[in-house]
Design brief:
heterotrimer, A alpha/beta (295), B alpha+beta (89), C alpha/beta (385), A: alpha/beta, Rossmann fold, 8-stranded mixed β-sheet, two-stranded antiparallel ribbon, 11 helices, 10 strands, B: 89 residues, alpha+beta, Alpha-Beta Plaits, two-stranded antiparallel sheet, 3 helices, elongated
């Protein structure tokens, strides 16, 4: 058995947090796992014919149907009595999860399949060239929401796919980050021990699309959490059961500034937009109780 | 079926991504290492190995030189050095 | 055992006899009776199978893809908009060489929305890499379904098979059908045991990205595999006859073509009407016949050329059209006869959206065939509307 279940030789960009997170997930899940993957960066960089980086059974079909394909895999395992010893993971990027793949994913959750679904959220369609998705944050400059004279970037807030998952009444929903590797692996192990549908939303910086240096991946992932812009939370049976408490809250500028996709927010006249992003972080902090209050 | 449509596990190892590295490579100094394993955890290629203090190393056959291992090392025991200088050694 | 049943029930009984491990489907008229029947069999405990009720046809096709990749025999069914919604997965299933069996209960395509029969839905997917079989009657719908599994899962084929039966005409029409015995089906159809599947003991990756260096060869291989079923299908129908004692299925059926001066080429249940009309016209001394296409993909070009070699006038009755061009069977036939002059080949479109094709429609086609050669002549268009 190799040390890691995602082999080197894949063609992810240097410093790609999705490749990092995918390996952490799979190492935590173990070898008795079948991976079903939507189309996207992860699939493209890991399975260029005739090779694969996966050390476990892997199947990719289309952009939006991994959850349905995984449902079929799970049904087959249920039928042939192998479900007790085999775990199924269905995974996708942010577009494959929250946009084009949401219907199939909702169906999978609703039907109660024993599958862990994972969203590797790099907040845009990176594989096709950094186009805006439903999980692109407010005022992000992307190739289809470019910031310019008449635009401050993506005008809409990030879709709350976590609470959409919770609304399905599934037993376990959590968020995690490439900046917190051990926490991510702990959540994968916890999810794998639960029977039924589970959802794990993992925040993964993309040096190419976010326009930061490859060696900043880890730090930027942590800053998203430490500013309150990406809450690390857990829901069990519909109720919030865990949260990462931010010890030293940082202003959103700390997170935004190193990223080229937010560069326009640091030019004169963008103060209101910056303030709005800070308010998003404040609302997250309040909604999920991310900072210990001195009461 | 004449043409094989599936791939063998881990066969991506055929693709030596170390050739991507043009500017910098991580040098594991092996002096102040505390064996915290952060470099293993954050390597996107999964190619850093080691157990004991000051025993950690990476696999240059695959290392793309992203520099994450050096960036996260709490002891500053991994240094990014120019690729050219090193290869001339 | 003989029973008086709908075509839908015939397909459901056939599927049950083939014992799939996973069935997934989404409701659409006129396909629903098939999966309702199967759901009842599962609920009654007569069929030990996972029945996955999905949220769309796209997911139905995806579920069976996943399940067959994990080593289970599978079934799904659809019609019309449902099949077209599936189409992305339909192409993908063939490209991944997954032996899925699907029943298409043929229905028109929107707009205007119309739930009645023609062949536009399955014909739109003729380029997908699936074997397409067209049933003339309920018995054939049952037989083709059983044969479809044998063909799809044959290690020499590994291509998906679509069994097409006309909506309402067959799906809701009652006919006497001979239901085969379970042990004979078991004798005909070996257990599904694919050489490669999703298996943690042998972890392969499926559904790879193939660039320009590989894609062309892989598609050629699929094309060849689909074409090669032209050799497997006669072998399978011969074995079917040996076990069940019935000639059923195959590539084409020649009906009274010997000495024929005119022939119609068509597919599906309309061929029953054409046969009756041929019989009546023959009784009047007219030398007419029918060539029924059972296997439309792969296209049995050689057999068609042979069967029609001595027929000087050929009409193609298409219940579908490539809008702005011609009927699909006509286009294939014209291509097959290229470089073979001296034959009149005319294309007619009829029956779209459930418009009745009666013996009079068939007679009109034979009459028009005597006139000028046409390529996409609509039959039965009202002069005032």
């Amino acid at each position: 058995m190799p040390e890691h279940l995602l082999s080197p030789g894949h063609t992810a960009c240097a410093g790609c947090a999705q490749s990092l997170a995918a390996r952490l997930v799979l190492d935590a899940a173990g070898p008795n796992t079948i991976i079903v993957n939507n189309t996207g960066c992860l699939e493209v960089f890991s399975t260029a014919y005739p090779d694969t980086a996966w050390e476990v059974p892997f199947i990719h079909s289309l952009f939006e149907n991994a959850a349905a394909v995984a449902s079929g895999v799970e049904a087959a395992l249920r039928q042939n009595g192998k479900l007790s010893e085999t775990r199924v993971i269905s995974q996708a990027g942010d577009g494959g999860t929250a946009d084009i793949g949401l219907q199939a994913l909702s169906g999978m959750w609703e039907r109660g399949h024993d599958i862990l679904s994972i969203c590797y959220d790099n907040e845009a369609y990176m594989n096709t060239g950094i186009q805006r998705s439903g999980l692109t944050p407010t005022y992000t400059s992307t190739s289809t929401s470019p910031a310019s004279k008449s635009s401050t970037g993506n005008p809409r807030p990030k879709k709350n796919v976590v609470e959409i998952a919770v609304a399905h009444g599934i037993p376990y929903v959590a968020t995690a980050s490439a900046g917190f590797p051990l926490d991510l692996q702990k959540k994968v192990k916890k999810a794998m021990a639960i029977r039924g549908p589970k959802f794990l939303h993992v925040h993964v910086p993309c040096p190419l699309g976010w326009r930061h240096e490859p060696d900043q991946t880890y730090q930027i992932a942590r800053l998203a959490v430490e500013t309150g812009l990406f809450p690390m939370i857990e829901f069990e049976n519909g109720k919030i059961s865990g949260r990462y408490l931010i010890a030293k809250l940082k202003p959103v500028e700390d997170y935004l500034k190193p990223q080229g996709r937010f560069r326009h927010l640091f030019k004169p006249g963008a103060e209101a937009a910056l303030k709005e992003i800070q308010e998003i972080a404040n609302r997250n902090i309040e909604r999920y109780g991310l900072v210990k209050t001195a009461t | 079926m004449r043409i094989k449509l599936t791939a063998e596990p881990g066969s991506a190892r055929n693709n030596k991504t170390g050739s991507w590295r043009v500017e910098r490579r991580p040098q594991f100094l092996q002096k102040n290492c505390s064996a915290c394993r952060m470099c293993i955890l954050v390597c996107p290629e999964g190619i850093v190995s080691g157990k004991e203090k000051n025993s950690f190393k990476t696999d240059y056959l695959y290392c793309k030189g992203c520099g994450l291992c050096a960036a996260v090392c709490p002891k500053k025991d991994i240094e990014m050095v120019p690729e050219e200088t090193e290869s001339k050694k | 055992m003989k029973d008086f049943i709908e075509g839908s029930e015939a397909v459901a009984r056939a599927v049950c006899l083939c014992k799939p491990g996973v069935i997934s489907a989404y409701p659409i008229t006129p396909q629903t009776h098939i999966v309702e029947g199967l759901a009842q069999m599962v609920a009654d405990g007569r069929l030990k199978c996972q029945f996955v009720n999905v949220e769309s046809e796209h997911s139905a096709a995806s579920v069976v893809l996943g399940a067959v990749a994990a080593g289970e025999r599978v079934f799904t069914a659809s019609s019309s908009q449902g099949l077209i919604l599936m189409s992305e997965v339909i192409f993908n299933i063939a490209g991944m060489r997954m032996p899925v069996v699907l029943a298409c209960v043929n229905r028109s395509l929107s707009a205007p929305i119309n739930i009645w029969n023609d062949l536009q839905d399955s014909m739109a997917l003729r380029d997908s890499g699936w074997v397409q079989l067209y049933a003339e009657n309920n018995q054939e719908a049952l037989d083709l379904t059983i044969q479809a599994y044998r063909l799809a899962e044959d290690s020499r084929a590994l291509v998906p098979v679509m069994v097409c039966l006309d909506g309402y005409v067959l799906s809701h029409g009652l006919e006497v059908v001979d239901i085969p015995e379970e042990d004979k089906v078991a004798q005909f159809l070996p257990p599904f045991n694919p050489a490669e599947k999703l298996d943690t003991a042998n972890p392969k990756s499926f559904g790879l990205l193939a660039g320009p260096d590989y894609y062309l060869e892989i598609r050629h291989d699929l094309h060849q595999a689909v074409k090669d079923t032209l050799k497997l299908i006669p072998e399978i129908t011969a074995d079917f006859k040996r076990i069940f004692g019935r000639d059923s299925g195959g590539l084409v059926e020649s009906y009274r073509l010997e000495d024929a001066e005119m022939a119609i080429v068509s597919a599906g249940s309309v061929c029953g009407t054409i046969k009756d009309t041929v019989d009546n016209l023959r009784a009047e001394g007219k030398k007419v016949g029918l060539l029924r296409i059972i296997t439309y993909r792969p296209f049995p070009e050689e057999l068609i050329l042979q069967a029609l070699a001595k027929v000087p006038m050929v009409a193609i009755l298409d219940k579908a059209i490539s809008l702005g061009a011609t009927g699909p069977i006509y286009a294939d036939l014209k291509a097959a006869f290229q470089g073979k002059p001296g034959k009149k080949i005319s294309g007619y479109i009829a029956g779209l959206g459930g418009r009745d094709i009666t013996p009079d429609t068939i007679k009109e086609i034979f009459q028009q065939l005597a006139g000028p050669e046409v390529s996409n002549q609509f039959i039965g268009l009202k002069s005032s509307f």
